[in-house]
Design goal:
The protein has 340 residues and is an alpha/beta fold. It has 2 domains: 3-228, Spore Coat Polysaccharide Biosynthesis Protein SpsA, Chain A; 235-339, no CATH class. It has 14 helices and 10 strands. The protein has helices at 3-6, 25-33, 53-63, 77-87, 106-116, 153-162, 176-186, 197-206, 235-250, 258-276, 280-299, 307-318, 321-330, 334-339, and strands at 12-18, 40-47, 67-72, 92-95, 101-102, 121-130, 133-135, 149-152, 172-175, 211-223. Strands 1, 2, 3, 4, 5, 6, 7, 8, 9 and 10 form a 10-stranded mixed β-sheet that branches. The protein is globular and about 60 Å long.
Length: 340
């Protein structure tokens, strides 16, 4: 039952797409169902896994009546999110990755703020960690710190463009009515996009938001694994990132934020160029990156770009950006270069 219909605290639907997640799924689900806050629904969407994930999902649905197990063909996380959105019955929806977990007390804190704020979106802080322990925040993004409370969507948009706030969907909770209305009008999650899909979706969604409830506490723990890093070339994934960039560029933006968005788009294009690799398809993607960079650089005076970003754009257009990156990797200096 939803909270708004029965005078109860808000019902929070947690959607967890799970593909071959047997190693971490139990820890993830346990971190949610063992919270003190009990008015929740957990939707485990098995995305055609080939390991024991389907059985684990079924076991959890038998163990806890708040947990539902859903099985689909393997179509990727966006398709799993769309299925979860269809099945969710809560007042608020939270998309959580199966290899991460939720901090103790997170749901109660979120519910308290939701009840106190009239807003369409909740933004929470996150921590990044790997098998060796907690990582600096800068390893994920340079997290902005703001007083807890309500902020305007334009303030969040500015932080996103500056790289001071992540686009990751797991760091946001969506008001269910607003999310469904947006999906009906603009389409659900794009199932053919596998890179920067969170950013494309979030920037489009923000156009329907007035107020954002900002929670500074780091309530979500993101697990950084080898698979979560952009190490291996993947031309198909890189090509889908171009689609995301083009969608973002089509969104109307406050003129005062245009330069910041330009910088974000350039950072995305540099990542796409790196991911594309040297296959025939990858070379085609990198050619498209150069064309898009030329277009983007026309939109705003180049003098407004940070010097390091201008230098990287020039290297990409000269076709030597990846050669230099490989040399920097060998020299152990790539991290400083990527963060410049």
């Amino acid at each position: 039952m939803t909270g708004k219909e029965h005078g109860m605290p808000p019902l929070i639907s947690v959607v967890i797409p799970a593909y071959n997640a047997e190693r971490y799924l139990d820890e993830c689900v346990r971190s949610i169902v063992e919270q003190d806050y009990s008015n929740l629904q957990v939707l485990l969407v098995d995305d055609g896994s080939s390991d024991s994930t389907p059985e684990l999902c079924d076991e959890w649905s038998c163990r806890d009546k708040r947990v539902s197990s859903i099985h689909t063909a393997n179509r990727g996380p966006s398709a799993a999110r769309n299925r979860g959105l269809i099945e969710a019955s809560g007042d608020w929806i939270w998309f959580v990755d199966a290899d991460d977990y939720v901090a103790p007390g997170a749901l109660e804190k979120i519910a308290e703020r939701i009840s106190a704020c009239r807003c369409e979106l909740v933004a929470i802080g996150i921590k990044s960690f790997n098998e060796e322990g907690e990582l600096p925040v800068s390893d994920l993004y340079a997290e902005a710190t703001l007083p807890e409370g309500v902020i305007k969507f334009s303030e969040l948009e500015s932080l996103l463009y500056q790289g001071r706030r992540g686009h990751y969907l797991y760091s946001y909770l969506f008001k269910a009515d607003c999310l469904r209305a947006f999906a009906a009008a603009s389409g659900p999650f794009d199932e053919d996009m596998w890179l920067f899909e969170d950013a494309a979706f979030l920037h489009q969604y923000l156009g329907n938001v007035s107020d954002v409830c900002w929670i500074d506490d780091r309530l979500y723990w993101y697990r950084q694994t080898e698979g979560s890093l952009l190490h291996r070339a993947d031309a198909k994934k890189a090509a889908s990132g171009l689609k995301a960039v083009e969608q973002i560029r089509e969104i109307e933006v406050n003129p005062d934020l245009r330069g910041l968005r330009q910088q974000m788009v350039i950072r995305f294009l540099l990542s796409i160029d790196t991911l594309a690799g040297d296959s025939v398809e990858g070379i085609g993607v990198r050619r498209h990156v150069r064309e898009l960079l030329a277009d983007v650089l026309v939109e705003e005076p180049r003098g407004n770009l940070p010097l390091a970003l201008r230098a990287k754009c020039l290297l990409v257009r000269m076709g030597i950006y990846q050669t230099l990156r490989k040399l920097l990797i060998k020299a152990g200096a790539i991290r400083a270069w990527d963060e410049a």
